[in-house]
Give the backbone structure.
Amino acid sequence: MKEPSLDLFPCGCMITPGMGEAGSLTIISANRYFEEVLGIPLQGLLHQPLVTLLTRASGIFFDSFMLPMLLHEGRCDEILLDIRTPSGERVPVIVNTVLEASGEQLIYWSLFKATQRNRLDQELISTRSRLEEKSAMLEELTRRDELTGLLNRRELRRRADLILAQSRRTDVSVAVLMLDIDHFKEINDTRGHAEGDRILEALGCLFRGQGREADIIARVGGEEFVFMASGLNEQEAVQAAQRLHELAGQVPMAGDPLTISIGISLSSGDSGLTYQELFKRADMALYEAKSEGRNRTLVYNSNTRKFDTSS
């Protein structure tokens, strides 16, 4: 019976010595797979150093990982390497190697062209990256109010707790400004909910560019918004409120300009006020501001001192 030829194997078959680095190992034998599938003529492959076949990175990987593994385990399975063709093309291959420990100590290689697998791997990596980006976008959307793009109530609560915790550690004051659009129900009833949504969206757009990066501005429901910042004293908080009044007046309106009412509460770093207490005080000041005629700011303290910002 005629002995089968290695040229019939549907993979690259190669033999190299088992001792030495890639730069000193020569290719003793190889089948026609290299020529017919990988485009590497046998004439330019046989008796050449292994380093001429492998890319520089793959040669380093062979020396630093594969050869020690072969000497210790006797084999390496499913290793992804890159080889170079005479034209300079880089071709990914899956390599399995076995070290014949007795006798001449030869390394037997099998190589499979992995262009398709490599392409699929790259597509998987790309798809995973896109999914991670979309997941991050969706995560961000869960933190935002759909209409205004501002933070929503849940995210406000989460960040407020962080700000208050930091305030207690660093003994820095915290200001909460709770604001409400004046006569918003009347606007909805007389001009329609679409007009109400337009006003909310426009106000949200104006508010988004305000404050420092660490400050919070959120829509907490209906026509109610919250601005929260650390490191502001009472005067600075009132100045911030005045700026919010001015921004509200920039919303395009048919008829009277848009106005808002604002309640402010302040917490020093050592006051120990909780989220609920701080926001309740701001809400009480807001209620008083609306009761006194709207379009104004009130600061909560023991006597609810007033700062009238109406025009």
